[in-house]
Amino acid sequence: MYSIGEFSKLSGFTIKTLRFYHEKQLLEPSAVDPATGYRYYDNANIERARIIRQLRKMEFSLSDIRDILDKYDDQAEMLDYLEGHKKTIQAKIIQYQNVKKTIDNLIKNEKEAIMTMKDSGFEVEEKQVDPILVAGVRMKGKYSDCSVGFQKLGRAFGRYIKGKPLCLYYDAEYREEDADFEPCMPIKQHVEKEGFSVRQLTGGKCVCLLHKGPYDQLGRSYARILEYVKQKGLKMNCPTREVYIKGPGIILKGNPKKYLTEIQMFISD
Amino acid sequence: MYSIGEFSKLSGFTIKTLRFYHEKQLLEPSAVDPATGYRYYDNANIERARIIRQLRKMEFSLSDIRDILDKYDDQAEMLDYLEGHKKTIQAKIIQYQNVKKTIDNLIKNEKEAIMTMKDSGFEVEEKQVDPILVAGVRMKGKYSDCSVGFQKLGRAFGRYIKGKPLCLYYDAEYREEDADFEPCMPIKQHVEKEGFSVRQLTGGKCVCLLHKGPYDQLGRSYARILEYVKQKGLKMNCPTREVYIKGPGIILKGNPKKYLTEIQMFISD
DNA sequence: GATACAGCCTCCATCAAGGGGAGGGTCAAG
DNA sequence: CTTGACCCTCCCCTTGATGGAGGCTGTATC
Predict the structure, then answer these.
(1) What is the pLDDT of residues B65-83, one digit of tens each?
(2) How far is Cα A33 from Cα A46, in angstroms, rounded to an integer?
(3) Which residues of chain B are within 8 Å of residue A92 when distances are taken between CB atoms?
(4) Quick one: average pLDDT of B58-62?
(5) What pLDDT shows up at residue A177?
(6) pLDDT above 90 for B186
(7) Which chain A residue shows the shortest CA-CA distance from B104?
(8) Which chain A residues have a beta carbon less than 8 Å from that of B83?
């Protein structure tokens, strides 16, 4: 016969937990002093406690454990229970793996944005851009309708998306209304969908500039880039691209002052 | 302005949850009618609700979410939070994977025992046994002390164990006291440990019989097997092996009537 | 015998993240 | 004006414990 304190050390459960299990009729002391209410445990309780520990480690609920202890005396009879429980556990694993994937993506995106900003002196530079497979929706209207296009792309290509969103501008100059542009999302593999253009964008040499700040101030950066092009006597090709390195995030909309956009203008000498 | 019912549909939270979030000051309606207590939400609430949904999907706690919404307006500032949370999630994944592994093992063991029993007609038969790598503790004493040996093996070789426990009996006849035997555990790789003999057991031809029932009735099966050996004029070699296909389980001690033990006696003509 | 202190008791409250339901007030349409 | 849908607050329930208040009990020591 052990007092609750002794039994606590033997079983590895706290005193509180033992009282709780008693209340739940999961692990009942072999004797309770009717005068004092003191609980006393014996060796049979130790065995039962051991079983409960094992099952708790496997994340069985207390009611499941009571069920098991009541119904079964052989592990073979538990097979169904185990199979069912395994499915539950498996589902949780998958769920958490998805959460982890999401978080990893967020972290990766932010880190990339930070790196891009560090590497850039926010000066106009010439660089080589690789070809890229994208899905796009060509639109006419106001620039701000862009986001509608990205929403459509997100819904349609969700899991194929891999990379930063970008937008092609087909007008040779700035247009307030009735602009001709095409929001695009880089995708992992070729998938055709009604209403979207899926194709490989050609790479090539371009003049580019990283713009930091809200979209309505892109004009200043465009001015700088155009000046550079004029000075060097380069010839620009349509469409212009904007790559949204960091914009309104998936979670927080963020501070527009911190948005990062790369303007890419393809050139030929 | 939306009523709580409309906003519930817009945001995807139940009415109960919205009221709960209001109470927790996580998502407060833009207006509350002081006379009726009716809650009214606006578009800014929709955006905040969207953020909360995203973060809840990632299993952030409500207090974390409130923290994030209060402190940060840019995802980049959340990086530490995300990294910390990722670790938590990762830990859960590992934990659940371990649980799953344990359950898988239990299921596998029970299924194997069931298969073995189905395949066997509980008749004496001759078969070829493969060599096997084991860790063993040689002991002298009562058979029932066997379990002590297995406990030692379990503690010492825990994660290297792979297979059913077995025991070697070095006495030529049955001994109540002072028997000479060696509990063994099959292991995956050679690991030396003080006090244990780690070696490859040789395989070979043996006469064997599956015994179903408690260990104290093994005598009957031994009698059957010895009769067979005598009849066929075979020569037995020491030590005899008992393989515990199904004994007291890891969780439930089980019903001794269902225990399965294979007796293996190695023979040479 | 008194006292100190450890150990035990019951009862109540708390956590997270809501869900269920009772009992009662409110809104809009017919 | 009524009806039915909608909304309100308040309280209890879930799971698996944990923490604390206030009060007994048991044993050792002085």
Answers:
(1) 999 999 888 888 888 889 9
(2) 19
(3) 92, 96
(4) 96
(5) 80
(6) yes
(7) A86
(8) 107
What residues contact B138, with CB distance under 8 A and at least 6 apart?
B180, B181, B182, B197
pLDDT of residue B26: 97
The reply to whether residue A54 touches residue B250, judged by beta carbons under 8 angstroms, is yes
Of the candidates A54, A126, A161, the residue with the CA atom closest to the CA atom of residue B102 = A54
Report helix, strand and coil shares of chain B as percent, to nearest 5.
Answer: 45, 25, 30
Cβ-Cβ contacts under 8 Å, B76 against chain A: 110, 113-114, 246, 254, 258
Amino acid symbol at A124: V
Distance of CA B186 to the CA centre of its chain: 17
Whole-number Cα distances in Å, B213 to B88, B222, B225:
47, 13, 16
Task: Note whether A93 contacts B89, CB cutoff 8 Å.
Answer: no
| B52-58 contact pairs (CB < 8 A, 24+) | B52/B21, B52/B26, B52/B27, B53/B11, B53/B12, B53/B13, B54/A250, B54/A251, B55/A251, B57/A99, B57/A102, B58/A99, B58/A102, B58/A103, B58/B85
Which chain B residue shows the shortest CA-CA distance from A107? B79
Q: Is the CB of A30 under 7 A from strand C?
A: no
Using the beta-carbon criterion (under 8 Å), do A82 and B103 form an inter-chain contact? yes
What average pLDDT does range A147-169 have in this prediction? Answer: 91
What topology does CATH give the domain B120-268? Multidrug-efflux Transporter 1 Regulator Bmrr; Chain A (3.20.80)
Q: What is the pLDDT of residue B147?
A: 87
Mode of pairing for the β-strands spanning A31-32 and A39-41: antiparallel
Contacts of A47 in chain B (CB under 8 A): 253
Strand D contact with B21 (CB < 7 A): no
Please determine, for residue B269, whether its predicted confidence score (pLDDT) is greater than 80: no
Q: Domain segments of chain B: what residues?
A: 2-71, 120-268
Kindly report the nearest CA distance between residue B60 and chain A, in angstroms.
10
- For residue A212, the model assigns a pLDDT of 93
pLDDT confidence of residue A171: 87
For C6, which residue's CA is nearest its C1'? A5
The CATH code of the domain at A2-71 is: 1.10.1660.10
Distance CA A162, CA A157 (A): 10
Measured CA to CA, the distance from residue B130 to residue B208 in angstroms comes to 14
User: Which positions on strand D lie below 7 Å from a protein C-beta?
Assistant: 6-9, 15-19, 24-26
Query: Cβ A258–B74 below 8 Å, yes or no?
Result: yes
Q: What is the pLDDT of residue A201?
A: 94
Give me B47's structure tokens. 């955006």
Count contacts between A and B (CB, < 8 Å).
129
Sheet strands (E) in A130-232: 132-136, 139-141, 166-169, 179-186, 197-201, 204-212
Write down the mean pLDDT value for chain B: 92
B62 touches strand C (CB under 7 A): yes
- Report pLDDT digits (tens) over A234-262: 888 889 999 999 988 778 887 888 899 99
Segment B89-104 mean pLDDT: 96
Helix residue spans in B58-173 (DSSP H): 62-71, 79-119, 146-157
